Amino acid sequence: MIHIDYLDRRPIYEQVVDKIKELILLGVLEADSQLPSVRALAVELSINPNTIQRAYTELERQGVIYCVKGRGNFVAATKPLREQYRDEVWKKLESLVLEAKKAEISKAEMQEKLELLYS
If you ran DSSP here, which 8-state letter would residue 119 be given? Predict the structure, then answer.
């Protein structure tokens, strides 16, 4: 489910946050589905439970998950996360287009490459 890269410079809790978001965006974790308990995920990943708790706290702060006392953590509505991700992709594309203009890549060349990439 989640793989931790110990060579990654980012803290482990950030990697857990990103992986859970990725699983939500891929549809593996659906809205209102329960996440593993802090202890269970910590054992599965062989990391400190405090690290998982920190990741869950960050996800809750971002509105990606919600906590139900005595029951655990659940995936919040996925639509806001998908919209946020789409906005990030559009911003990256806008930046890329500006870079392409600087590199004198024509609109036709960009469209041709885009068609190849979407195939």
Answer: -
> Model pTM?
0.79
> pLDDT tens-digit profile of 5-37?
999 999 999 999 999 999 999 999 999 999 999
Helices and strands (H and E) in the chain: how many: 5, 2
Spatial CA neighbour of 19 closest among 49, 95, 11, 90:
11
Q: Which residue has the tokens 């995920």?
A: 41
CB of 62 closer than 8 Å to CB of 20:
no
Q: How many CA atoms lie within 13 A of 77 on its CB side?
A: 4
How many other C-beta atoms can be found within 10 angstroms of the C-beta atom of residue 92?
Answer: 10
- The residue among 29, 20, 104, 92 whose CA lies nearest residue 59 is 20
- Return the residue matching tokens 């060349």: 109
Q: Which residues contact 31 (CB under 8 A, 6 or more apart)?
A: 75, 76, 77, 78
